[in-house]
């Protein structure tokens, strides 16, 4: 423990009666009860309290009693989490800190990093016990919009542009949310902020590569003021990363130290607001960000997960059935017609485009902020160009199959007509599907 600070183990009951364990750091000597702050960490299951030890030490050196605690792993997974439950955990931590000797219970607030920037305001909106709110790398937008910006920015940094980002990545993220694979995807952060009455400090690093540092501050201000709250302060730290740490490489790698002046800002701001000196809409111009974020609303019925599944089943059935029957016909040494050649090309290219699209987008999603999309030519990765080539070939083959089928209609059997009808229907559906996913767009 750094000299001049004390450390006290604290346990409390969070949501559902789960026992959570933490540590309070505070100055050893104080002439009067001190303000306190509970630190709420970012995303991840079971994040240990040590993850925020640097912040806790530096804030304690500013005269605050600081509580850090182990984040829950119960009920929190990649596909299931509840900001409401996490907010209840945070409020339980506030109650525990308010009860500690040497802490002024009227001056205890919440600090939230990243995901905690959604959780801390939600907790504050539920309780007058919270004296103030601090968000670092916080979002006043939906989690899906933030995550989409995060992932597409990583692709842009390696030279990717165009329909892969504008259509493919965006629609794949929305599909995942529709399928329940993106917990809290459409959490309404602005509705929560409109209910926050406590003074709020927002901190962003100018090189935040995970949260849009230019888009979010105006969204925060708009939501707070619509709720009648003008007691907010925004500050931006040049060259700092998502957590307002010094970054040696423009935000890609997090340094150990906090940005110069950040801890001092927190200390002085908390002392001011807990002494009745409230800020009044103190919001300088936010830093420029490399690319704007894009709204990602819930899917309409025609693009929903169920409609995508129906289209996928149609493609798999139609694009595999025709060549399988063709193989049987070839074994039986039936004559191969011009219609059959175009139809098999449609089936082959369509099937590969559909399967390849989902495999490639899933690979990019799994890569997160460290993508390797392949060699990039004119903003398009080679795998994406290959998928686009397949989609163009399938579209041309669909037209050619339809034309040659009509010309040869009188010579074809009833079974051949049925096979071609199913295939052409799948091809006709494939065209708008490929446009939706960006395979037929630049």
From TrEMBL:
Give one GO term, molecular function aspect: hydrolase activity
Q: Which PROSITE patterns match?
A: PRO_ENDOPEP_SER
Q: Which sequence ranges are marked TM in the entry?
A: 305-325, 345-365, 385-405, 417-439
The record's Pfam families line, in alphabetical order, gives:
Peptidase_S9
* Gene3D superfamilies xrefs: alpha/beta hydrolase (3.40.50.1820)
Is this entry keyworded Calcium? no
Positions of region (Disordered) = 277-297
Q: What name goes with this protein?
A: Alpha/beta hydrolase
Which InterPro entries does this UniProt record tie to the protein?
AB_hydrolase_Est10, AB_hydrolase_fold, Pept_S9_AS, Peptidase_S9_cat
Question: What sequence ranges are listed for the domain Peptidase S9 prolyl oligopeptidase catalytic?
Answer: 87-244
Q: Which UniProt keywords apply?
A: Hydrolase, Membrane, Transmembrane, Transmembrane helix
């Amino acid at each position: 423990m750094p000299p001049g600070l004390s450390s006290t183990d604290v346990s409390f009951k969070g949501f559902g009666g789960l026992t959570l364990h933490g540590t309070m750091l505070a100055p050893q000597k104080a002439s009067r009860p001190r303000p306190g702050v509970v630190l709420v960490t970012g995303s991840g299951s079971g994040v240990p309290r040590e993850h925020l030890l640097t912040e806790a030490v530096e804030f304690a050196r500013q005269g605050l009693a600081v509580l850090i605690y182990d984040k829950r792993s119960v009920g929190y997974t990649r596909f299931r989490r509840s900001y409401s439950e996490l907010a209840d955990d945070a409020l339980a931590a506030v109650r525990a800190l308010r009860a500690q000797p040497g802490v002024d219970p009227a001056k205890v607030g919440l600090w939230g990093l990243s995901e905690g920037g959604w959780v801390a305001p939600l907790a504050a909106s539920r309780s007058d016990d919270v004296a103030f709110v601090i968000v670092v790398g916080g979002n006043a937008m939906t989690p899906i919009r933030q995550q989409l910006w995060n992932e597409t920015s990583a692709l842009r940094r390696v030279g990717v542009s165009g329909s892969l980002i504008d259509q493919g990545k965006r629609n794949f993220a929305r599909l995942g949310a529709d399928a329940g694979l993106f917990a809290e995807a459409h959490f309404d952060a602005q509705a929560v902020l409109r209910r926050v009455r406590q003074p709020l400090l927002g901190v962003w690093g100018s090189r935040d590569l995970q949260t849009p540092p230019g888009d979010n501050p105006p969204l925060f201000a708009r939501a707070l003021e619509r709720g009648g709250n003008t007691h907010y302060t925004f500050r931006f730290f040049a060259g700092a990363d998502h957590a307002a740490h010094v970054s040696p490489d423009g935000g890609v790698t997090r340094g150990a130290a906090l940005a110069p002046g950040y801890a001092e800002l927190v200390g002085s701001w908390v002392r001011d607001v807990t002494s009745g000196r409230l800020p009044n809409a103190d919001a300088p111009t936010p830093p420029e960000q490399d690319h704007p974020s894009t709204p990602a609303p819930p899917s309409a019925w025609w693009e929903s997960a169920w409609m995508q599944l129906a289209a996928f089943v149609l493609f798999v059935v139609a694009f595999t059935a025709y060549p399988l029957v063709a193989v049987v016909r070839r074994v039986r040494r039936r004559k191969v017609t011009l219609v059959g050649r175009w139809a098999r090309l449609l089936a082959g290219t369509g099937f590969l485009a559909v399967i390849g699209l989902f495999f490639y987008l899933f690979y990019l999603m799994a890569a997160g902020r460290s993508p390797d999309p392949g060699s990039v030519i004119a903003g398009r990765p080679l795998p994406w160009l290959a998928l686009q080539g397949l989609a163009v070939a399938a579209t041309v083959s669909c037209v050619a199959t339809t034309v040659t089928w009509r010309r040869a209609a009188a010579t074809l059997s009833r079974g051949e007509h049925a096979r071609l009808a199913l295939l052409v229907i799948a091809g006709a559906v494939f065209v708008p599907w490929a446009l939706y996913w960006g395979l037929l767009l630049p």
